[in-house]
User: Fold this.
Amino acid sequence: MADADLRRRSVLCASREGLHRIAYVEWGDPRNRDVLLCVHGLTRSGRDFDDLARALCGQFRVVCPDLAGRGDSDRLADPMLYGVPQYLADMVTLIARIDCEAINWVGTSLGGLVGMALAAQPGNPVKRLVLNDAGPVVTRASLERIGAYVGAVPDFPTLEMAERHVRTISAPFGPHSDAQWRSLTEHWVRQLPDGRWRPHYDPRIAEAFRASIPKEGDLEAWELYDAIRCPTLVLRGEQSDLLSHATAAAMAQRGPRASVVEIAGVGHAPTLMHADQIALVRDFLLQGDAP
Assistant:
């Protein structure tokens, strides 16, 4: 499926400060009742899932939103609203908009935390959950690493210079082709009227992010994970500093007793752009669907 075949949509969502628009792209047959919702990481956008969506849109209606303050979605009036409760409320509104009773969820990093929060709710619509380098413990080391650059939105004179920056800060993504690095860059920046390029997210998300870092220890949410009842797959970058091996192992033993797969040569986080990573997601989502 070509990019020309994706559909660009938006939905109006509410916060205590008023209304904001959440943008999303949709792939596949809009009449398909088997829906896959893909939610991105902290400073990324829904277009990160283009390769996954192209591969799976024959089986699913794939919906990829931009969280508030990212990509084509509106920025929030109060930066302290940039957190899981608001993202969860927005995704519930989006699910109502696309009119489906049950969804599959793939969430990378922050998108995985939002998916955990949704899947932990009584009566939730999540039937299968993929947590891509995300879990109920976020290490302090990773929070401090991300906090060191989130909110910094430098201008780049050229797209090539922006790509060099992306290759540096996203080195934990692992090896990618030149075309893949260019795609990861193009969906992270927007061109300004003067021709320069800038990361396309609200730098104020850094305020809420830094406020969420605990004074001591890691950030933990086992109460959410233990409440999940749907089949769950955890993908962990073998070198991840966010989701530890110990946490992933514990996730296999408690709560939904997730299946855990570690991806060699990758840190935080697998991009789900490679055929082998896409196959892991596809095989899990289609389990039990074959005649």
